[in-house]
Amino acid sequence: MAEAGAPKSCPIDIMGLRVFTIANAISLPVGNPLNHRHDPFIDVDTVRKYVTPTEKRLGLILSLSIYTFLTLTIVASFYIPDK
Q: What is the 3-state secondary structure (H, E, C) of the chain?
């Protein structure tokens, strides 16, 4: 993207979540509540122009692993025994 002269796709990095934001943008379908076209943090259409199929698969793996981790953490929090 930099070689083509495109601006930074995600200029804001909040606590290192830029990687996760880019992974969602390239792997999830546009129109999904987690990946909408008018996201203020990333230009989804610009990023998708430069993605290779391998990067799309890796983004999907990262997105699925993070969402699985969050789901398991929330569910497991209900089963932590009280002292």
A: CCCCCCCCCCCCCCCCCHHHHHHHHHHCCCCECCECCCCCCCCHHHHHHCCCHHHHHHHHHHHHHHHHHHHHHHHHHCCCCCC
